[in-house]
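Following the same procedure, sequence and fold were stored together, as reproduced here:

>
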Amino acid sequence: MTPNPEQPAPDYSAVRAELEAKLEKLVTRVKGIDTDLSEAVNEDWEERATEQEEDEVLAGMGNVTMREINQIKEALHAIEHGTYGICTRCGAHIDPDRLEILPFATTCIKCA
């Protein structure tokens, strides 16, 4: 749905600030995960097995974090283009309570 130029866009500056702060934290977290995953492998095979299990968990956390980073970037893009808070499926406005709980929601509750 395209924004209506006759209707002023809601002020999402507080949401934008919240999303940008969260994005910064998540990017820092991903960098930390990448650093941990790039550490040298232990030569002791038992330690290596434990490290490999930990690396799998870290990689999973990294994947989840990257998905959240992408969702936040999409929400920031929507704010920038005046489409934030509009369901990408049906075009209805997303309930503000839903956006408060999940600020990067792209669908209304009926389409979720």
Remarks:
- The radius of gyration is 19 Å.
